[in-house]
Structure formats: C-alpha cells, structure tokens
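Support case: zinc ion complex. Customer-provided input:
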Amino acid sequence: MQAVLFSAPETLHIERVPDPTCAPDEVVLQVSRCGICGTDVHIYHNEYMSEFPLIPGHEFSGVVVETGRAVTDLKVGDRVAVDPNLYCGHCDLCRNEMANHCLHWQGIGISRPGGFAQYTAAPARACYRLPERLTDTQAAFIEPLACVVHAMKRIRLLPADPVLILGAGPMGLLLLQALRRMGAGAVAVVEKQPARLELARQLGATLAVPASADQDAALRELAPRGFGVVVDATGIPAVIEGALRFLRPRGLYLQFGVAPNHARISISPYELFRNDWTLVGSFALCYTFLPAIDWLANGAIDVTPLVSHVAPLQDFASLFHQFAAGQTLKVHLQPPSA
Ligand SMILES: [Zn+2]
Ligand SMILES: [Zn+2]
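Agent response - structure generated as follows:
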C-alpha cells in the first residue's frame, strides 16, 4: 500500500509498504481521510515522544475491510473513527479515570502506524461507528474535537466568564466554539494572521485582535479585570510566558497548545499565590469521542470553515510543509482507494 513514512527526524517519503495485518482483537481500515495536526510537525522535528520510522496520522476515519477473529461488534463495511489513544484498561491510572496517562499507553500514528496510509490496523475497542449523517470532513475532526472536549472537562468555567484564546489555528477555532457552547461570556482571540482573525469573528469571537504591541489595550478594554480563563492554542513558549498577565484574580490558565518538549518558561510564584490562579494542562483526550461525535452530529460545532485543503495523499509533502509554516488551516489527505 501507499503510505507516508517519517523514516528519521525531518525526513519524509511517500512509499510502498506492506499492507497491515490485524491481531485477533483488531480491524484493518481503509482510510477515508486523515488530518494533519501540529503534533505531526512536532513528531517530524523529533520534539515529541515518537520513534522512527513511523507512519504518522492520528486524526482519521475509515471503513472496516477486515476483522480479527475475536472481533464481534464490528463488520466489514462499517464506517468508523478511531480513538488513536490506546489504553490498557488494567493499570492503576486506567482504573482511576486517567486512561490518557495509561502506563502502557500507545498512540496510533504516534507509537504505531497511523492514518496517512491506504490502510491501517486498530483495536476494535478504539473504533467508534459513525452516524450516517456525519460527513468525512466532520469524521476527521472527531479526534481534535475530542481533545477539546477533554480540555472542557479539565477547566472550570463560570457562566459568562470572559475568555481569551491565544492562537486561531484549527484548534483555537474549535476551542472558541466549544467555550461559547460551555457558557463563556465575551471571547477574545489574539492571532497574527488576518484571515484567521476574520474566521474567528465569523465563528463568534467578541473581539479578534492581531497579535501586536496594541493588543493589550484592546483586551483590557474588553475585560478590565482580566479574563476568567486564558487558553494557549499556539504552543509558542514566548506567547505562553506572556499569557498569565491577562488572567483575572481566581483566573484559570489552560495549556492546550503543544510546546516543544525541551521548552522552558519562567513564572512568578508570588503572582500565582497572590492571585489565586489555577494552571491546568490538558493532554490528548480521555474517552471523549462520544461527546465530540454528538457535538459534530448535532451541528453544535462547525468544522467546514476550518478546512483549507482536501488533497490526495500524494500531495502530503508539500502540504505538510505549508501547514508547518502556518500557511494553511486544517489539511485533510485522502489516500487512493485501491
Ligand atoms: Zn492531533
Ligand atoms: Zn493503562
């Protein structure tokens, strides 16, 4: 089959590789769509937990083409999305509602072959059958939206709290919609690209300001005491370091963007103490596929405007580099069907 291969850090090829086979509790899927994620860029630069060689891709849906002999609840032809986070179900953390920190965690497209390929194997327990009305575009957003749902469960948002989102890439724009659904008051977005700011306005941002020397005045006017929740959706250490200055007393800071694993920032423990602040991280997702599917199927979250490219898998290399340079929104690749 045809697949994208990260053969070593910063080396990618589209290659012919053997078709996957499935273990007794797994299925083989023909991939319909797979989205490029910022995490894929970190993997490419060897700033994440992956090892090489790797077939990347963890935001995908597909059609079951083969089932292992122990699989009873899926059949050939089923359309499914796959939770790429594989939890053992037996360790202390799995058994204490922290499956995303499973001691034996594996990630499809992270630590085992992923969705940038014609076919991929996945445990049946990680597959979610799709409602018929869900489009392929929506289906490839289930995984990123499930990460947003996990973040919504990690934070505490009071009704009508003002919220600030730093970064309006595809994840920032999902966070914007989710936070509005969760009952946020004014939602401000800071972003350097004008087209993304315009999209943020269309998707309901109260204020969308260019990242610049003037941004603080506009933000202070909207939320004179600061924001109840500040979310980083950039993963850029310098942006993260400056984010706490926008927090209101009792405010909550959410680290959603993925920063390079070697990055460090400095914060003032005195300010943290003096302001009753809460700092929250949100890693991947934790059994949040079902609410994400519900939000998409019920039209609560609009993903159509977040897709800038739908292209054949052969175009991966050039689109990946454009994505990494911030020149695209979400990019979806479609592997050839035969
Ligand atoms: Zn992702
Ligand atoms: Zn576990």
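The chain has two domains: 2-146+285-334, 156-281.

Case will auto-close in a few days if no follow-up is received.
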